[in-house]
TrEMBL record:
<dbReference type="InterPro" id="IPR018228">
    <property type="entry name" value="DNase_TatD-rel_CS"/>
</dbReference>
<keyword id="KW-0378">Hydrolase</keyword>
<dbReference type="InterPro" id="IPR032466">
    <property type="entry name" value="Metal_Hydrolase"/>
</dbReference>
<dbReference type="Pfam" id="PF01026">
    <property type="entry name" value="TatD_DNase"/>
</dbReference>
<dbReference type="GO" id="GO:0016788">
    <property type="term" value="F:hydrolase activity, acting on ester bonds"/>
</dbReference>
<dbReference type="GO" id="GO:0046872">
    <property type="term" value="F:metal ion binding"/>
</dbReference>
<feature type="binding site">
    <location>
        <position position="10"/>
    </location>
    <ligand>
        <name>a divalent metal cation 1</name>
    </ligand>
</feature>
<feature type="binding site">
    <location>
        <position position="203"/>
    </location>
    <ligand>
        <name>a divalent metal cation 1</name>
    </ligand>
</feature>
<dbReference type="GO" id="GO:0005829">
    <property type="term" value="C:cytosol"/>
</dbReference>
<feature type="binding site">
    <location>
        <position position="94"/>
    </location>
    <ligand>
        <name>a divalent metal cation 1</name>
    </ligand>
</feature>
<protein>
    <submittedName>
        <fullName>TatD family deoxyribonuclease</fullName>
    </submittedName>
</protein>
<keyword id="KW-0479">Metal-binding</keyword>
<feature type="binding site">
    <location>
        <position position="130"/>
    </location>
    <ligand>
        <name>a divalent metal cation 2</name>
    </ligand>
</feature>
<comment type="similarity">
    <text>Belongs to the metallo-dependent hydrolases superfamily. TatD-type hydrolase family.</text>
</comment>
<feature type="binding site">
    <location>
        <position position="153"/>
    </location>
    <ligand>
        <name>a divalent metal cation 2</name>
    </ligand>
</feature>
<dbReference type="InterPro" id="IPR001130">
    <property type="entry name" value="TatD-like"/>
</dbReference>
<feature type="binding site">
    <location>
        <position position="8"/>
    </location>
    <ligand>
        <name>a divalent metal cation 1</name>
    </ligand>
</feature>
Length: 255
């Protein structure tokens, strides 16, 4: 069986409240041996910590997501520092900027984003970055801070934007959207990109692939993302699985 890493799955989400154990078991049976669980707010940190503590192969990331500003408090960046002192994650995330959702305070988003990037620099941790509608500013911010590493999850930018991220050593997280035939630009990028910057992800329970349109997504569906990418690159699935899993292990220090 191929051994895969789901580099981005919100297993703590209430959508999994009724069958979380079964979801994890289905992922295991599909060959998803490791999963990175990014947080969205301070309230989710203990739940993610406890979930990862009882399941081998689940790895926590802690952060403040830009879409959940109403749940954050100004002191939460300081709380994150204290939390990192006591709970070693594999990354800081999910962090970033979101210019797609109306009504989100842009300056407040920037405040949290920059504060968490500084923590990543201080703690030498990778970052898991959300950049919906904000990839240009996110890229400039990452470049301005320097010395960072990580992944822009659910990448949906141009080839030029992808090249700018690779030049800084950043990975692209690719999930369900690539399985849609209409995603021609993304498919072209994935087909030709340097394999060392590619990570597989589900973003479950969100972003289901074409075969599960309108359904709740699951980490087990990463196998369908793998199959699609292997076909786009005209490469064996085992080759893509080995490379992307090695990338995730190296970035997040999973070994």
């Amino acid at each position: 069986m191929l051994q895969l890493v789901d580099s981005h799955v919100h297993l703590d989400d209430p959508a999994f409240a009724d069958d979380r154990e079964a979801v994890i078991q289905r992922a295991r049976l599909a060959g998803i041996g490791r999963m990175v669980i990014p947080a969205v707010d301070a309230g989710s940190w203990p739940k993610i910590r406890d979930l990862c503590a009882v399941h081998a192969g689940l790895h926590p990331a802690y952060g403040l997501h830009p879409m959940f500003l109403s749940r954050h408090a100004p002191e939460d960046v300081g709380k994150l520092l204290s939390w990192l002192n006591e709970n070693r994650p594999v990354a800081i995330g999910e962090i970033g900027l979101d210019f797609h959702v109306d009504g989100l305070d842009l300056e407040l988003q920037r405040h949290y984003f920059i504060g968490q990037l500084q923590l990543a620099q201080e703690r030498d941790l990778p970052v898991i970055v959300h950049a919906r509608g904000a990839l240009e500013e996110v890229t400039l911010t990452l470049r301005r801070h320097g010395g960072l590493r990580g992944v822009v999850h659910s990448f949906s930018g141009s080839e030029q934007q992808a090249r700018q991220l690779w030049a800084m050593g950043f990975h692209l997280g690719i999930g369900g959207p690539v399985t849609y035939e209409r995603a021609q630009r993304l498919r072209r990028i994935v087909a030709q990109m340097p394999i060392e910057f590619l990570l597989l992800e589900s973003d479950a329970p969100d972003q289901p692939g074409a075969a599960h349109r309108g359904e709740r997504n699951e980490p087990a569906h990463v196998t369908e993302v793998l199959r699609c990418i292997a076909a786009l690159r005209n490469a064996p699935e085992a080759e893509i699985a080995a490379a992307t899993s090695a990338n995730a292990r190296r970035l997040f220090g999973l070994d």
